[in-house]
Amino acid sequence: MTDISTSGNNQTSNDNLALRIFQWLFVLVLIYLLITAVGMIGSGFKGATKGQATDLFAFATNPFMGLIIGVIATAMIQSSSTVTSIIVGLVAGGLSVEMAVPMIMGANIGTTITNTIVSLGHINKKKEFRRAFAAATVHDFFNLMAVAIFLPIEILFHPLQKAAGYLAERLVGGENLSVKGLNFIKPMTKPVIDQFKSLAHMISESAPNVLLIVFGITIIFMVIIFIGKLLKKLMVGRAKDIMHGSIGRGPISGIASGAIVTVLVQSSSTTTSLMVPLAGSGVFKLKQIYPFTLGANIGTTITALLAATAISGDHAILALQIALVHLIYNLSAVFLIYGIKDLRKIPIRGALWLARIAADHKIYALLYMLGVFFALPGLMVFIYQLIA
Amino acid sequence: MENENFASLPKKKLKKLIHETQDVLDQLKAELKTRKQDKQHDEIDHMEEHFEDAAHNLSNLKNFIQKAFSELRKDK
Q1: Are A166 and A306 contacting, i.e. CB atoms less than 8 angstroms apart?
Q2: Residue B5 Cα, gap to closest chain A Cα (Å)
Q3: Complex-level ipTM
Q4: Nearest-by-CA chain A residue for B56
Q5: Which residue of A64, A173, A326, B74 could cross-link A381, Cys pair, CB 3.0 to 4.6 Å?
Q6: Which residue among A120, A247, A277 sits closest to B40, beta carbon to beta carbon?
Q7: Residue B55 scores a pLDDT above 80
Q8: Which domain holds residue A303?
């Protein structure tokens, strides 16, 4: 009898192991598809614009227009990873890095809509809603502040673009510190991209490149959804361990664990949304949640870096440059805003103030979301055009 | 304890009392901290449920809009 039950347990454990191996293999396939899809967008965009990508995006020479594209695109599809991967693909296809930087910043703002929507689920209990909404919007306030500080500086002096360019040059272009070894990616992705090119030609003779871009975007979108679901299952145990380990260890540990959990689940929205119920229940204080969400900003930059490995040739440096802009921008924002005590407090105060108002009059929460994610970027474009 | 009692205490005894009280206070604070952290660990153990909750965000938005507008109508 015991033998039967032991062998039954062994069978179950073998099945679980097989399932996990299968799931991990599927994750690898998805990463391969993500990289391939970025390559598709790059190739399609290059072909569609025939080297005139900057002309096609002439409307985005207004940096606030770039910002609004990033905000709205990310808010609509609720995934900054998808948007930043697409941006990397567009840069690889010829979009200038200068135009892409505000889009990346916009994606940072747009992604905060997800945890704000999650916090709305606590509407039935006023106190709980106030805490949950504050935990969600502290991320918004931080990211808005980061754009308010860094975008004007970037427009005037391009420090992010220059720093990322220097690093990308060292990593891809230099003779010494080169990752030219990553060129093995191209032979791996090229056959699939060629298949999709043929398919695009078969479907449409007149606009195969546009179709290739559509394929690329669709694949990225699907990959991010599937990979998020799979990694949540596969990594929940590890994520728990990391979070258990960070309790009672201060803000630096909070930032680090937020970044690691985000890398593990490949989604900053998932990490920051996870914080909302923890804050809503009152068990975690806003001060504890805040560094964790900042870590999510840093951790999410891994996707664009991963996407950049898809690009080889002349545009490899530029693709890596825009991915590094995302990383350097988020790191700098955390160092500057969280590093300076007076600046650090602003997002907390803003979030608490807004949450108090929204708990009393829920319509303000809706007005806030429409304002920040849609109306404000539009207003900025209008003002910039007036000034220009 | 009332102030008069403290006034009559010798300095040495007073210092000892402060020390003891401080010790008890530290223990109470540590206990409170442990309880808070235990609760936090418990919440993290329910991470799967929180992931699930976070997945239903669009229905959250729909519900919220309905409730916000009904609240607005009531206020009027």
Answers
A1: no
A2: 40
A3: 0.76
A4: A118
A5: A64
A6: A247
A7: no
A8: 24-387
Give yes or no for B29 touching A (CB within 8 A): no
- Tell if the CB–CB gap between A274 and B51 is shorter than 8 Å: yes
Q: Which of A114, A79, A118, A117 shows the shortest CA–CA distance to A277? A: A118
Is any Cβ of chain A less than 8 angstroms from the Cβ of B60? yes
Residue A320 lies in a domain: yes
Contact B47 A240 (CB under 8 A): yes
A238 class by beta-carbon count within 10 Å (0-12 exposed, 13-18 middle, 19+ buried): middle
- Looking at the structure of chain A, the number of domains it has is 1
Which residues have CB under 8 Å from A115's CB, separation 6+?
A135, A136, A139, A269, A272, A273, A275, A276, A293, B54
CB contact under 8 A, A281 and B68: no
Of A222, A185, A234, give the one whose Cα is nearest residue A22: A234
Residue of B37, B42, B63 with shortest CB distance to A248: B37
Q: What is the pLDDT of residues A303-354, one digit of tens each?
A: 889 888 878 777 889 999 999 999 999 999 999 999 999 999 999 999 999 9
Q: Is residue A83 part of a domain?
A: yes
Beta-carbon contacts of A100 under 8 Å, excluding residues fewer than 6 positions away, are: A66, A87, A90, A91, A322, A325
In a domain? residue A231:
yes
The dihedral over CA atoms of A338, A341, A344, A349, expressed in degrees to the nearest 10, equals 170
Residue A6 lies in a domain: no
For residue B66, the distance in angstroms to the closest alpha carbon of chain A comes to 10
Q: Do B63 and A273 touch (CB under 8 A)?
A: no
If we measure between CA atoms, which residue out of A15, A113, A98, A20 comes closest to residue A54?
A: A98
Which of A123, A287, A368 best probes binding to B when mutated, by most B CB atoms within 10 angstroms?
A: A123
